[in-house]
């Protein structure tokens, strides 16, 4: 999975002020968080995990807002569509750290290639999927109507599925959903009828 460096600011106001004066490519690299690093500390209390999620969601939302401002012509959120979200995701690929082999590469389909190759670096599917989930939630939390949510557009879902399938084949990694383990059922001991003559 991608591991994009990030820094947590102590206050939202300094973060917002900094994002207005920061080029978008710097903001993008500082805001996306690897799915693997966010899930690696599962032993921490759930309150800090939810706080980390909220902080990441806010940073992602600010980054997308900066992207809309820098867009030519500038876009308002109300005019943003699924096509603009796809454009944003493709823009983020330049900051990816996941090697995605092309079909002509000799290492296509190998999870651990033995040598370097010139194949491009991309955002990992898991990182993009988590990012879209956070932005989808942030859109509605910031007053957007669920039916008008560009992050939930069919085109975005299809794009994520396409990226998942392409990366799965190119990297030789299965992205099948993990089956949830069911809790062990307690065996019920059948009640035996009382032995004859016992009372």
UniProtKB/TrEMBL annotation:
Main subcellular localization, coarse class? Answer: nucleus
Q: Which Pfam family, giving just one, matches this sequence? A: ALOG_dom
Compartments in which it is found? Nucleus
- According to the entry, every stretch annotated as the ALOG domain falls at 52-179
Q: Which UniProt keywords apply?
A: Developmental protein, DNA-binding, Nucleus, Transcription, Transcription regulation
UniProt lists compositionally biased (Low complexity) regions at 34-51
Which region ranges are annotated with the description Disordered?
Answer: 1-56, 170-199
What residue spans carry the Polar residues bias annotation?
Answer: 10-33
The question of whether Transcription is a record keyword is answered with yes
Q: Does the keyword DNA-binding apply?
A: yes
Q: Which residues form a coiled coil?
A: none
Q: Which family does it belong to?
A: Belongs to the plant homeotic and developmental regulators ALOG protein family.
Protein name listed in UniProt? ALOG domain-containing protein
Which species is this record about? Xanthoceras sorbifolium
């Amino acid at each position: 999975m991608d591991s994009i460096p990030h820094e947590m600011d102590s206050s939202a106001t300094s973060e917002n002020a900094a994002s207005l004066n920061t080029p978008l490519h710097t903001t993008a690299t500082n805001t996306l968080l690897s799915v693997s690093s966010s899930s690696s500390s599962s032993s921490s209390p759930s309150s800090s995990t939810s706080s980390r999620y909220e902080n990441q969601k806010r940073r992602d939302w600010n980054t997308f807002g900066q992207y809309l401002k820098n867009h030519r012509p500038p876009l308002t959120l109300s005019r943003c569509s699924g096509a603009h979200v796809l454009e944003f995701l493709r823009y983020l690929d330049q900051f990816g750290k996941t090697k995605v082999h092309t079909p002509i590469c000799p290492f296509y389909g190998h999870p651990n290639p033995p040598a370097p190759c010139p194949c491009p670096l991309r955002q990992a599917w898991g990182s993009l999927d988590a990012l879209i989930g956070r932005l989808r939630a942030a859109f509605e939390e910031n007053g957007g109507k669920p039916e008008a949510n560009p992050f939930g557009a069919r085109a975005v879902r299809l794009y994520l599925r396409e990226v998942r399938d392409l990366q799965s084949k190119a990297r030789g990694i299965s992205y099948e959903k993990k089956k949830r383990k069911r809790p062990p059922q307690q065996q019920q001991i059948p009640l035996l009828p009382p032995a004859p003559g016992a009372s």
